[in-house]
């Protein structure tokens, strides 16, 4: 063991340079940015912004920007904490093994500290600058994502992304609460749309990332119930989503422009999902086309939510 | 022998390159922190002005 002598001449051990220090110096800026899951953050920011835009009333642009920034930072914080908690299974999956923690570029403790700091800061700033209602829903969404989805559900039940999907459905409610200081039926409808959109979206991904999830022992529906049942559930949740997507029009909150665009989007989604159900498959339900329809449905689902929420905003601003 | 003495040791060259990379990463991180701190200062200033206008 190496050491240094103290004033008495006795040898004192020198602490070896710990790994986290080494990793801290190794990480590039882009690694810290990757911890925030920027692609997920994009959708979260967008739905939060739409909640803010369609809410009745007016919010000063500076405060509106602050609200969206807090939503984005909190979403990124959730991503960092999720990567900290899931670092063991991330290392086992092709899709995630190059993330900063399993790749050894950022130490787990640093990622956790980074995530917690950002989450707390985002909630406090939202509360001080915007209002307590928005900060409370933001805090609830962070807690739900970290404790309910990441730590409790994800590794225990194939319904993980069904219940956990609520975490991703909060931003529209937060945006609405930022303007109004309260939550009523419209943001709850927006919440429900994202909630029922999540299973078809994630299970389409899970169908073609099935091997990854199996290797990591994550009980996603295709791993536990098989591809056939997953396709059936995707269809079921899509059928539940379609009437919900028209609810803003049905209650008179949105106009005909929104209704027409939504019907077109719904037809497209149904066609995509029907192709997933009718995909050429063997007796066990394994796709013979490399899950091409599921990949297409996954891509379409992202487009669907973007266009649906954009249509609502345009309809409200124009109408 | 002379040629060996003149050329830098492979270890030293690698260490020099590693030090350069480390300095580059530190510089990038410091610049990023500066941008974040300046951004937050501007944001808090703007929020304060808005609050003063709306509440005062």
H-E string of chain A: EEHHHHHHHHHHHHHH
| Number of beta-strand segments of chain B | 0
- What is the radius of gyration of chain B? 24 Å
Q: Can you summarize the main beta sheet of chain B? A: none
What is the topological layout?
The complex is a heterodimer of chains A (319) and B (56).
Chain A: E1 3-5, E2 11-13, H1 19-26, H2 29-35, H3 38-54, H4 61-85, H5 87-90, H6 108-130, H7 132-153, H8 160-180, H9 185-208, H10 210-215, H11 221-245, H12 247-250, H13 256-277, H14 292-318
Antiparallel strand pairs in A: 1-2
Chain B: H1 2-6, H2 10-55
Characterise the protein shown here.
The complex is a heterodimer of chains A (319) and B (56). Chain A is mostly helical. Chain A has 14 helices and two strands, in the order ββαααααααααααααα. The radius of gyration of chain A is 22 Å and the shape is flat. Chain A has a two-stranded antiparallel ribbon. With 56 residues, chain B is an all-alpha fold. Chain B has helices at residues 2-6, 10-55. The radius of gyration of chain B is 24 Å and the shape is rod-shaped. The termini of chain B are far apart. The mean pLDDT of chain B is 84.
Short note summarizing the structure:
The complex is a heterodimer of chains A (319) and B (56). With 319 residues, chain A is mostly helical.
Which keywords apply here?
heterodimer, A: 319 residues, mainly alpha, two-stranded antiparallel ribbon, disordered N terminus, B: 56 residues, 2 helices
């Amino acid at each position: 063991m190496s050491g240094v002598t103290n004033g008495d001449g006795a040898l004192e051990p020198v602490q070896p340079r710990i790994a986290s220090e080494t990793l801290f110096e190794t990480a590039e800026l882009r690694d810290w940015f990757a911890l925030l899951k920027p692609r997920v953050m994009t959708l979260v920011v967008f739905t939060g912004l739409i909640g803010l835009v369609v809410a009745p009333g007016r919010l000063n642009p500076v405060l509106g920007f602050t609200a969206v920034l807090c939503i984005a930072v909190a979403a990124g914080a959730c991503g960092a904490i999720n990567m900290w908690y899931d670092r063991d299974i991330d290392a086992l999956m092709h899709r995630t093994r190059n993330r900063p923690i399993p790749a050894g570029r950022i130490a787990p403790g640093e990622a956790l500290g980074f995530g917690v700091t950002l989450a707390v800061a985002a909630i406090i700033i939202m509360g001080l600058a915007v209002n307590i209602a928005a900060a409370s829903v933001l805090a609830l969404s962070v807690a739900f994502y970290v404790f309910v989805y990441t730590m409790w559900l994800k590794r225990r039940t194939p319904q993980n992304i069904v219940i956990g999907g609520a975490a991703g459905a909060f931003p529209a409610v937060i945006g609405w609460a930022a303007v109004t200081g309260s939550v009523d039926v419209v943001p709850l409808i927006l919440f429900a749309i994202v909630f029922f959109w999540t299973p078809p979206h994630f299970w389409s991904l899970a169908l073609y990332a099935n091997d990854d999830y199996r290797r990591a022992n994550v009980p996603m529906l295709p791993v536990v119930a098989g591809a056939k049942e997953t396709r059936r559930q995707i269809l079921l949740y899509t059928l539940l989503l379609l009437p919900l997507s028209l609810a803003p029009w049905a209650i008179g909150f949105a106009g005909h422009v929104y209704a027409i665009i939504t019907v077109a989007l719904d037809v497209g989604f149904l066609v995509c999902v029907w192709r997933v159900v009718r995909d050429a498959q063997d007796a066990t339900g394994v796709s013979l086309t490399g899950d091409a329809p599921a990949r297409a449905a996954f891509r379409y689902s992202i487009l669907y939510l973007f266009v649906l929420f954009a249509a609502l905003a345009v309809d409200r601003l124009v109408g | 022998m002379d040629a060996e003495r003149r050329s830098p040791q492979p270890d030293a060259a690698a260490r020099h390159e590693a030090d350069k990379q480390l300095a580059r990463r530190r510089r990038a991180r410091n610049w990023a922190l500066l941008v974040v701190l300046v951004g937050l200062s501007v944001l808090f200033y703007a929020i304060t002005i808005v609050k003063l206008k709306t509440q005062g």
